[in-house]
Amino acid sequence: MAKLSQGVTSVIVGNCGISAAPVQLTGAPPDPMNLLGEADAFRYPTFAEYAAGPWMRHNLQSTWAPWLDTPLCATNHMDRLDRAATGNEVRAMRARN
What we know:
Elements: H1 2-5, E1 10-13, H2 47-51, H3 54-57, E2 63-66, H4 70-75, H5 87-96
């Protein structure tokens, strides 16, 4: 509502490695995703579910463009982010996104 009240009609979401979707966490959210909250804040395994979130239930009309972050994509398929992805993990990331 704050953005709409200021005349902002288009928003880029999910930049800076922080996004709520698409996420399927198996534990606590890693840095910097934990800035959005605890694991229960990440309840959108697909962009479609994210797009149907609270803003749509409240009829908030704006244009938004989701940015798929590399850390977010990796979090869905890797047990740790302090190493390079394996070939299987890279294939899984490509297939999902």
